[in-house]
Specification:
Layout (H helix, E strand, L loop, with lengths): L6 H13 L2 H7 L4 H15 L4 E4 L2 E4 L1 H28 L6 E6 H6 L1 H11 L5 E6 L1 H9 L5 E4 L8 E15 L12 E2 H6 L2 E4 L4 H12 L7 E5 L2 H9 L5 E4 H9 L4 E3 L1 E2 L4 E9 L6 H12 L2
Helix pairs in contact: 1-2, 1-3, 1-4, 2-3, 4-6, 6-12
InterPro entries: LysR_HTH_N, LysR_subst-bd, WH-like_DNA-bd_sf, WH_DNA-bd_sf
Family: Belongs to the LysR transcriptional regulatory family.
Protein name: LysR family transcriptional regulator
């Protein structure tokens, strides 16, 4: 296995693709051209790929370089989201904008939205609480946060709401599970007879699954084990504990890299809306309204 590249090398590769020059990319990173060229050569050796065509007129990415550059951009965006999210978690008590979000939204979307809002308004102090959808609604009703993001299939009572994104739940198993080898779609009734690794009650993911199974005329799901976070459920499935139903956002990389396998279920609609919620009868203003604008234009 190749040694993982360092973040500065990934930033350098992205900048070379954007600027068309190792020298310009190096200057933007505060480095010299020889040092940047050496760093890029080291990255190419680690990955076993030629990433950059070097000419007298500048530098361009090879076909492999363009592919790796796309992956690098996603890694750097995820890192930005991690840092932004951590800052918001750390500063949630005295924030000018207090936000609560359900697990899936908080892990995959809210840090990006907050990061863009902070770039437009760098002086803004944002705090974030991460919990399940039921608790997010309670925090908004109690006035403990200004705005919340939930993944429940229906709009919470006594709150104004607006759709900000779409999502789809998927049935996933470990590659060693018998369902991973099925060529035909699974019947909904089969899903209801097998114990599943599930989120706790109050989770939007669990409520979406229960409602979808009820609409399909299936029996209630049978929990094998209840866990308090999407990450815990995902880890349990990878370890072979049992099947689960999780957000496509949460398992996309696991599916792409073969750690999990998606199982198609016939007649089960697992699409859902991700919503912003705020106190009923009020109009979102100020930073809360600005965050909603950022979220909706990212759809």
């Amino acid at each position: 296995m190749a040694e993982p590249p360092d973040l500065e090398s990934l930033r350098l590769l992205v900048l070379i693709g954007e600027r068309g020059s190792i020298g310009k990319a190096a200057a933007e990173l505060g480095s010299s051209q020889p040092a940047a060229s050496k760093r890029m050569s080291t990255l190419e050796r680690r990955l076993g790929l030629v990433l950059v065509d070097r000419t007298r007129r500048g530098a361009t990415l090879t076909p492999a370089g363009r592919v790796v550059c796309g992956w690098a951009q996603r890694v750097l965006q995820e890192l930005d989201g991690l840092i932004t999210g951590a800052d918001a978690l750390r500063s949630r008590r005295d924030a000018e904008l207090r936000v609560a979000a359900s697990m899936t939204v908080a892990e995959h979307l809210v840090p990006v939205w907050i990061g863009e809002l902070r770039r437009e308004h760098p002086e803004l102090y944002v705090g974030l609480q991460v919990t399940n959808s039921d608790t997010v609604a309670e925090l908004v009703r109690a006035g403990e946060v200004d705005v919340g993001f939930v993944e429940t299939p229906g709009a919470p009572a006594e709150l104004s709401t607006r759709r900000v994104a779409g999502d789809r739940l998927v049935v996933v198993v470990a590659p060693t599970h018998p369902w991973a080898r099925k060529r035909k779609p699974l019947a909904t009734r089969d899903l209801s007879t097998v114990p599943l690794v599930v989120r706790e009650r109050g989770s939007g993911t669990r409520e979406t699954l229960e409602r979808a199974m009820h609409r399909a005329g299936a029996a209630q799901l049978t929990p094998l084990v209840e866990l308090g976070s999407t990450t815990a459920v995902r880890s349990a499935v990878i370890a072979g504990t049992g099947p689960a139903v999780l957000s496509e956002l949460a398992v996309a990389s696991d599916l792409a890299e073969g750690r999990l396998v998606e199982v198609t279920v016939e007649g089960l609609d697992l699409r859902r809306a991700l919503r912003v919620v705020w106190p009923s009868g009020r109009k979102l203003v100020g930073p809360a309204a600005q965050l909603l604008t950022v979220a909706t234009r990212k759809r």
